[in-house]
Design goal:
This protein is α+β, with helices and mostly antiparallel strands and 196 residues long. It is built from two helices and five strands. Strand 4 and strand 5 form a beta hairpin. It is globular and about 65 Å long.
C-alpha cells in the first residue's frame, strides 16, 4: 500500500517537477541569450553532447539550438574552466550563428568568497556592468586570440588585483568554447528535426 501511494504521489507531482526544472533552465538561458533572438522551442531543439575534451566536459550534457524563422540563431551550451584557483569553474554560454558571444554566466565554482567569486553576476562589485558580461559581443572575427586574455597578460579582459587566476581560467575556457562552436557550427545545426 505504501509503495502504491508513493508511486501515485510521484506520478502526480512529476509534471510539476518537470515544469519547474524547465523554468529554471530557461531562467539561466535567458541570462545568456535574450528570448527575442530566437522563436523556436529551445528546450525541445537539443543535441546530446558526449563528454567533450575541448569544452572540458567529462560528462555528457545538452546543447540547445536557437533558431529564428527556421534559420540558425545561436548555440547555448556548457563549458568548464578546469584551472580555476579553487578548481573547476562551470559556465554556460551562448554563441550566435555569426560567431559572436551573446552571453556567459558562471553556473558553479569554488572560488574564494570576496576575492575570486566576482566572476558571478551577483557577487561582483560593479552591478551596472558585472565582470562576466565583458565577453558579450566578442567574436573570433573581431577579436584576436591574444586579446582573449586578462589585461595583465596583454589581453583586453579586466580583472581584480590579487585575483587573476580565476579570470585567466574563465577567459581561456570561453575562447576555447567559441572556437569549438565555430568549428562545429554547421554540424551542430544540421539536424533540423528537433530533439536528439
Amino acid at each position: 500500500v505504501f509503495t502504491g501511494l508513493l508511486s501515485g504521489a510521484y506520478l502526480w507531482t512529476k509534471p510539476a517537477i518537470e515544469a519547474s526544472a524547465a523554468e529554471e533552465k530557461m531562467k539561466l538561458v535567458d541570462e545568456v541569450l535574450p528570448r527575442g533572438e530566437y522563436d523556436n522551442a529551445l528546450l525541445e531543439d537539443t543535441l546530446a553532447l558526449p563528454p567533450t575534451t575541448e569544452l572540458g566536459l567529462a560528462d555528457p550534457t545538452t546543447l540547445y539550438r536557437a533558431r529564428k524563422d527556421g534559420k540558425p540563431a545561436a548555440l547555448v551550451f556548457e563549458t568548464v574552466a578546469p584551472d580555476g584557483y579553487a578548481g573547476k569553474v562551470k559556465l554556460i554560454l551562448a554563441v550566435r550563428a555569426d560567431g559572436q558571444v551573446a552571453g556567459v554566466r558562471v553556473t558553479q565554482h569554488k572560488e574564494t568568497p570576496g576575492l575570486g567569486d566576482y566572476i558571478e553576476v551577483k557577487k561582483g562589485k560593479n552591478k551596472a556592468r558585472p565582470w562576466i558580461t565583458q565577453f558579450a559581443g566578442m567574436s573570433l572575427a573581431q577579436v584576436a586570440d591574444s586579446d582573449w586574455k586578462v589585461k595583465k597578460d596583454g589581453g583586453r579582459i579586466d580583472y581584480h588585483a590579487g585575483a587573476t587566476v580565476t579570470p585567466r581560467a574563465v577567459s581561456k575556457a570561453v575562447l576555447k568554447a567559441v572556437k569549438w562552436a565555430e568549428a562545429n557550427r554547421d554540424q551542430l545545426f544540421a539536424n533540423a528535426g528537433g530533439a536528439k
